[in-house]
Amino acid sequence: MKEITLPKASQLTSPNPVxxxxxxxxxxxxxxxxVSWWTYLSYNPNMIAYAMAKTSYSGEMVRSNKKxxxxxxxxxxxxxxxGCGMTTGxxxxxxxxxGIELIPVEGSSIQIPAHSRVAIVCSLKEYHETGDHYxxxxxxxxxxxxxxxxxxxxWNGYRKIAPAKQGE
Length: 168
Ligand SMILES: Cc1cc2nc3c(=O)[nH]c(=O)nc-3n(C[C@H](O)[C@H](O)[C@H](O)COP(=O)(O)O)c2cc1C
Hints:
This protein is 16% helix and 43% strand. The strands form three sheets. Strands 3-2-6-9-10-5-4 form a seven-stranded antiparallel beta sheet. The chain has four helices and twelve strands; from the N terminus they run H-E-E-E-E-E-H-E-H-H-E-E-E-E-E-E. The radius of gyration is 15 Å and the shape is globular. The protein has helices at residues 6-12, 57-65, 78-84, 94-97, and strands at residues 16-17, 19-24, 30-35, 38-43, 46-53, 67-73, 102-103, 112-113, 116-130, 133-145, 153-155, 160-162. The longest helix is centred in the middle third of the chain and has 9 residues, at 57-65. The protein is an alpha+beta fold and 168 residues long. The protein has one domain (6-166): Electron Transport, Fmn-binding Protein, Chain A (Pnp Oxidase, Chain A, Roll), CATH 2.30.110. Residues 18, 31, 33-37, 51-53, 56-58, 82, 85, 87-89, 154, 158, 161 line the site of flavin mononucleotide. Flavin mononucleotide (FMN) binds at residues 18, 31, 33-37, 51-53, 56-58, 82, 85, 87-89, 154, 158, 161.
């Protein structure tokens, strides 16, 4: 083996997971951001975590209102999910810009993409500074799933979003 950088390692571990982090903006609308760095943490109690750059607008939103829904997007919105990963919601309505249909989630004021395989409704428990990111540790309140939707993954250093079997 030869020594490599951590970003290079993340290419070698492709396909990497893809979530769409859904948060609520001050005007009540939903912001969508593409996030690979997430993980299950605990089943008892149910907990997950994800990491976002300190500069992300989504981070600002969840630190302020403590609410977030992580979704695993379906194949029909692959291009749009790439767009959500290259635009900030600070001054853009990403759902409108990328043509993502949103649906309500019972008991939450945050909406999610209609084409989602999984939705994990969370409240922020705590967050920690981790280098240039914050790590958000969340309690899971509800989980929804739709087996008909095929999950997306990030390929080639996050440059391509495709199902696991079609990534290469
Ligand atoms: C495939 C893919 C994966 C990404 N994963 C992450 C991630 O794990 N953490 C992160 O902070 N940004 C990640 N990004 C970049 C964010 O989605 C991007 O910075 C986005 O503009 C943030 O939006 P916001 O400012 O509305 O929160 C990823 C982008 C793509 C395309």
